[in-house]
Amino acid sequence: MTTIVMTGGSAGFGAVAVDLLSRESDVHLLIGARTASPDFIPVDLACLDSVRAFAEAVQERLGDTGIDVLALNAGSILPSDAVRTDDDIEATFAVNHLAHYLLVRLLMPSFSEEARIVITTSGTHDPALRTGLEAPRHADADLLAHPDRDPERHLTPQRAGQHAYSASKLCNVLTVRALRVYPDIRARHITALAYDPGQVFGTGLVRSLPRPRRIAWSVFGTVLGAPLRRFDRTMNTRVAAGMALASLVSGRTTPPPGRCYAALRSGHLTFPDPSTLARRDDVARALWNDSARMVGLTVDQSVGTPGRRSR
């Protein structure tokens, strides 16, 4: 039996992946969602206490059973960077990065030998792709959590919101990079991978954006978006993105040696280099340690080696 814990599996291409995975007889799925139901465990990624409660609920349900796959697929984009969570953290950074970082850390003791961690990122993290969204300038956790402290913060709300999103997705790739050298992860031969599904119209990602953007996003997710997908390799259907995610989660597709970034291009999984900034070990270590402090974890003096929880 393969035990999979997942966020972002109740809608969009995550729901496609869950449907495919649930058809396999030897899979046990534990799905976190904002609304509780018999099929989902409640979790609000905008609240760190809710993330902690979700991790405890997962561990209680599993008992001594290990987690074979942790798939962190949930995400959001907001019209600005002005929204703060109850923890006083910019909401996009909190949901897309910090909540998932905390979940990895809390569930790490429950990982099975040779488990897999898949974190959904975005091509917007890479300025070279020219995605049309504001590219990330940095991965400074303090400035992303409190953008009002950033001296280079965009004055236009829309651009500031785009930067919050793309920078949080850069943080996803950097988290994977840090995980791959984390001592406990290496000792147990656990694989960490960042997954870029490309542009996937017709999902709930833009539910908080203005109505015209939501309508366009929905329309392009239908057959009307097919001509665009023929000319842009980064555009994929919801079904294709879900199938690729399911393939990575199930282990049917594995990255080549040394690769930790999978990108879906024209419906096919590729394993290119992530952005230049995403390949910097010093940036990954700083983000890992700063994120630890933000969620109430201590950090040992040795660089990049977080210690025990302080709370």
Main traits of this protein?
single chain, 311 residues, Rossmann fold, eight-stranded mixed sheet, two-stranded antiparallel sheet, 10 helices, 17% strand
CATH architecture designation: 3-Layer(aba) Sandwich
| CATH homologous superfamily title | NAD(P)-binding Rossmann-like Domain
By CATH, the topology is Rossmann fold
Tally of separate domains: 1
Could you describe the largest sheet, including whether it forms a barrel?
8 strands, mixed
Low-confidence stretches: 301-311
Secondary structure: number of strands? 10
Can you describe this structure?
- Helix 2 (48-62) packs parallel to helix 3 (91-107).
- Strand 9 (297-299) and strand 10 (306-309) form a beta hairpin.
- With 311 residues, this protein is α/β, with parallel strands linked by helices.
- Mean pLDDT is 90; it is low at 301-311.
- The longest helix is centred in the middle third of the chain and has 24 residues, at 157-180.
- The chain is globular.
- It has a single domain, classed as Rossmann fold (3-Layer(aba) Sandwich), CATH 3.40.50.720.
- The chain is built from ten helices and ten strands.
- The strands form two sheets. It has an eight-stranded mixed beta sheet with strand order 3-2-1-4-5-6-7-8, sandwiched between helices.
- Pfam families: adh_short.
- Belongs to the short-chain dehydrogenases/reductases (SDR) family.
- Keywords: Oxidoreductase.
- It comes from Rhodococcus artemisiae.
- InterPro entries: NAD(P)-bd_dom_sf, SDR_fam.
